[in-house]
Write a structure and sequence with these properties.
2 iron, 2 sulfur cluster binding; Cnh; CMP-Neu5Ac_hydroxylase_Rieske; about 20% helix; cytoplasm; 2Fe-2S; globular; alpha+beta; seven-stranded mixed β-sheet; 14 helices
């Protein structure tokens, strides 16, 4: 284990540490640290928010002098416990080692395990022209030719993602299915449907059910829903993090986890003849921020907009002006964060990808117009201004020849653009078949019995938390659906009261399009389809993000869907503990 000295304090500086929080900067490295002193006990950490690397400052609302606040998104860290308090009950900060020397001076140390990609290092060999080719297909999907092997990342090439909220911005090359069928291996980074896309995989499985697919060993399995999806893939390989997977004598890859969402997000390093390609996909802090420097090609997300926040929120501060300003500021922060990351890692070539989606269904016109995304060209210009990194803005079917680009970045054949007249942007989407599938859930017989509500939330398993939600089923325009359900859930004791309880309680009102909420409920799917798919409208009082609640419904729901068959067989139509349901208009109860 390597140990790095991050900061030295003289005996005088140690003596001057005050009770509570102390900020320090190492003047020679420009890096910032926080000490927390409690009598003679000292704790320390980097002054860097786990979320997106923002800087902490004193939290003026904290009267106990224990917490600091991030300048980026107002995350708060209690330095006395090293736990984040906003979002509540969420993350822990990595602590540093404090060591006193014999003169009462102080050393701040970080224990650095060796980087896993440095094990059995290989020197880069010369690449022939055409030996390594990277072709962009759509969104986060790249087709890599590595010698005589082919590898594909995250194939989403047809249909929607997140229920019906996301559609492809780019028209995939017409031979995409042939390309997928010819792959020797496919890497799927995580379970979100713009990366693990069942409509695409279903098409592939009809032709090659045994295609080798590789995923990281995340806490929630990437393919947790495979059996229920009806897609017949028979060769899914779950590999441990941080270990080289040898494909042939020249090719190996290593999957790494995300520091913020280790339970679901991963990224990958692919190495061919000593040349590294780094794909950080959607990771917020890939590998906790420790990544290989000076790789040959790096690709990452850049666009933003992959969340229901703040477009789907109403009431309180969420005016149109506030949302527009927030989105503008947020995108700028993301742009600067990505540009800084690229500058720090200094790859030879950088490619922004995994942000090429559009909210093209007519019912989501409002989201499409307000959810402005970063422009890849703007990011690339920012990178070029700050470094000598070569950038590539990919178009579907364009191919980068790594050997040529490394030898001469100005080689006109280094990047072959798609032929003149190739359709780049989609202008029509086949909405109907996908909406029809969602719509079948609306008439499902489980929803004839109001006791489905108790059944569903009992299955979900979230309770003992002081939060009350009101769930309202709506039409396309988020007005109450005629005959739809409108009910309260009190998560403190998992009851379904007629009216809000008298005690103090946070409250959220969640309006959901009836087709999507019923499809999600019936199939035991994660609420990302609702939230990231823009299929809800939310109001909350007070305006607090309930991390435990959302994290449960977005990541931690049981991996087998509710047993609706036995629910119907029990015929508990009017059983005890039936939820109190307010029904507008004519009732289906």
């Amino acid at each position: 284990l390597g140990t790095e000295i991050l900061l030295c304090l003289s005996p005088a500086e140690v003596a001057n540490l005050k009770e509570g929080i102390n900020f320090f900067r190492n003047k020679s490295t420009g890096k910032d640290y926080i000490f927390y002193k409690n009598k003679c006990h000292l704790r320390a950490c980097k002054n860097m928010c786990k979320h997106q690397g923002g800087l902490f400052i004193k939290d003026i609302e904290d009267l106990d002098g224990r917490s600091v606040k991030c300048t980026k998104h107002n995350w708060k860290l209690d330095v006395s416990t090293m736990k984040y308090i906003n979002p509540p009950e969420s993350f822990c900060q990595d602590e540093l080692v404090v060591e006193m020397d014999e003169n009462n001076g102080l050393l701040l140390l970080e224990l650095n395990p060796p980087n896993p990609w440095d094990s059995e290092p290989r020197s880069p060999e010369d690449l022939a022209f055409g030996e390594v080719q990277v072709t962009y297909l759509t969104h986060a999907c790249m087709d890599l030719k590595l010698g005589d092997k082919r590898m594909v990342f995250d194939p989403w090439l047809m249909g929607p993602a997140f229920a019906r909220g996301w559609w492809l911005l780019h028209e995939p090359p017409s031979d995409w299915l042939e390309r997928l069928c010819q792959a020797d291996l496919i890497y799927v980074s995580h379970m979100h449907s713009d990366h693990l896309n069942y409509p695409t995989l279903k098409k592939l499985a009809e032709r090659r059910p045994d295609i080798p697919i590789y995923v990281g060993n995340t806490e929630r399995p990437v393919f947790w829903n495979l059996n229920h999806s009806g897609v017949k893939l028979t060769n899914i390989n779950v590999v441990p993090f941080g270990i080289w997977q040898q494909v042939d004598k020249n090719l190996r890859f290593m999957i790494l986890m995300d520091g913020v969402h280790p339970e679901m997000d991963t990224c990958i390093i692919v190495e061919y003849k000593g040349h590294k390609i780094l794909n950080t996909v959607d990771c917020t802090r890939p590998n906790g921020g420790r990544l290989p420097e000076k790789v040959d090609l790096m690709m990452s997300d850049f666009a933003g907009g992959a969340s229901g926040f703040p477009m789907t929120f109403n009431g309180g501060k969420f005016t149109e002006e506030w949302k527009a300003q927030f989105i503008k500021t947020e995108r700028k922060k993301l742009l600067n964060y990505k540009s800084q990351l690229v500058k720090d890692l200094h790859p030879r070539i950088y490619c922004p990808f995994a942000g090429y989606f559009v909210e093209s269904h007519p019912s989501d016109k409002y989201i499409k117009e307000t959810n402005i995304k970063n422009d890849p060209i703007e990011l690339n210009n920012l990178i070029k201004k700050n470094s000598d990194v070569i950038t590539w803005t990919p178009r579907p079917g364009a191919t980068l020849d790594l050997g040529r680009m490394l030898k001469d970045p100005t080689d006109s054949k280094g990047i072959i653009e798609p032929p003149q007249g190739t359709k780049i942007y989609k202008d029509s989407w086949d909405f109907e078949p996908y909406l029809k599938v969602l719509n079948t859930a609306v008439e499902d017989e489980i929803f004839l019995h109001s006791s489905w509500i108790k059944e569903y939330f009992t299955w979900a398993g979230f309770k003992d938390y002081n939060l009350v939600i009101r769930m309202i089923e709506t039409d396309e325009d988020f007005s109450p659906f005629p005959g739809g359900y409108d009910y309260l859930v009190d998560f403190l004791d998992l009851s379904f009261p007629k009216e809000r309880p008298r005690r103090e309680h946070p409250y959220e009102e969640i309006r959901s399009r009836v087709d999507v909420i019923r499809y999600v409920v019936k199939n035991g799917l994660l609420w990302d389809d609702l939230y990231i798919g823009f299929q809800t409208r939310l109001q909350r009082d007070p305006d607090i993000y309930h991390h435990l609640f959302w994290n449960h419904f977005q990541i931690k729901l049981p991996q087998t869907p509710p047993d609706w068959r036995s629910f119907l067989m029990r015929g508990e139509q009017n059983g005890s503990g039936t939820p109190q349901v307010r029904c507008p208009g004519h009732s289906i109860l």
